Amino acid sequence: MRHEKAENLLLLAMEMQAARGGLTLDDIAERFAVGRRTAMRMRDAVMRVLPQTEELLGDDRKKRWRVPSTTVDRLIAFSADELAALAAATNLMDDANRPDLAVLLGDLSQKIKSLMKPDIRRRAEPDLEALMEAEGIAARPGPRREIDTRILEALRRAILACDTVKIRYRKRKDDALQTYRLHPYGFLHGHRHYLVARRADGGMGNRLFSLPDIAAVEAAGLPFVRDPGFDLEAYAAEAFGVFHEPPSDVVWRFAPHAARTAAEFTFHPGQIQEAQADGALVVRFRAGGLLEMAWHLLAWGDAVEVLEPLALAELVNPHRRHWEGLP
User: Transmembrane stretches, by residue range (predicted)?
Assistant: First the structure.
């Protein structure tokens, strides 16, 4: 137990150094799952060992404590578990058709290894190899469309700099290329990958552009002012997947034999689950994207019934089949 307490104090000192604005007592209590009094004792212990710890008063009038930069740098080490987690994240990004992030994570892994002392790195390598062999990642079935990492990088730079871009975009229906001037706002990633942008002329609000269908990106050299009211996370929550349309009140009923499995799913961040007297499970939320809901629900077969909205019920209910397993 004493070793665990010492480890937590060391981790707290590292986090107090990493947090530019410092940590509040609530931050400490939440991070280490302790009560406020214990959080105060942990803070005091760090301040006794590191008297250079600074006390700050934030804009919210809450006190924060920060360890000056470089104070505990020599105490920071990287374990085989952490390196394996980073390698697994790299593989997951590659499998999710995100080669841009896979490359960045791979570069980060190499930089971390270069910072490790040679003897520590040699001791960690056998454990890292064993952990990676045990960390299996199931390959996603089916084809996937490739994304040009140069397109992603150009768009990412434009998003960070709030620069207008001109893109050449391929329409799926007729394969024709069209030119758009856009204010890029961000990316939505899922089983498909999209750029979220607005037309530079101010028309049509937020629009989605399939990243694999962007043939070219060119900086227009015109800065734009980002809408301070736009929230990408809130925008994403308006839809079940990535297709955006006016939201509907959605109600699904999962049969008793599927209720336990369905209860383990988060279908939408705002969902409400209601257990029924007969063992069934009702799930409610509000979102658009009925077509993507239909694609997903058909995998549940006759284990689910759409109660609302009617448009979704007509897409799904007549075509349900009995499957031997559940998603």
Answer: none
Return the number of other C-beta atoms located less than 10 Å from residue 164's C-beta: 17
109/158 same-domain check? no
Give dist(CA 325, CA 327) in Å, integer: 7
Model confidence, pTM = 0.58
**Identity of the amino acid at 322:** H
Provide the CB-side half-sphere exposure for 45 (13 A, CA): 16
Determine the structural domain holding residue 259 and report its residue range: 248-319
- According to the model, what pLDDT value does residue 193 have? 84
Structure tokens at 189: 């990633």
Of 75, 101, 120, the one marking the end of a domain is 75
For residue 271, tell me if it sits in a domain.
yes
Using DSSP's 3-state secondary structure scheme, residue 116 falls into: coil
pLDDT at 278: 96
Number of domains in the chain: 4
- Between CA 139 and CA 96 the distance in angstroms is 9
